[in-house]
Task: structure prediction
Amino acid sequence: MRTRRKTLSEEQIDQFVISQANNDSAWEDAMKVTRQRSTSLSLPAVLASRAAFFARLHREASLEDWIKRIIRERLDIEEAAFAGCKRELIGKNSR
Result:
C-alpha cells in the first residue's frame, strides 16, 4: 500500500533547496538545452496586409498568432481529408 507524501509549502521547499545549494552530490549533472529556432516565412506585401486585416477582424492578439491558428486549422482539414481518402481507397481495394 502506498503512503501519501507530505506536501511541503513553498517556503519549506525553498529552505530545502537553499540548504543543498552548495552540495554537489545533491544535484544532477548539468543539462545542455538548445533553443528551438523559430521559422521565418516571407509573405508578399499584399498577402501580409490581407492577413493583418483578418487578424484584426477576428480580434487576434497578433498577426503571428492568427497565422498559426489558421495554419493549424488548415492542417487539421487536410489531415482529415487525407484520412478519409485513405479509408476510401482501403475500402475499394478490399472489395
Observations:
- Residues 63-93 form the longest helix (31 residues).
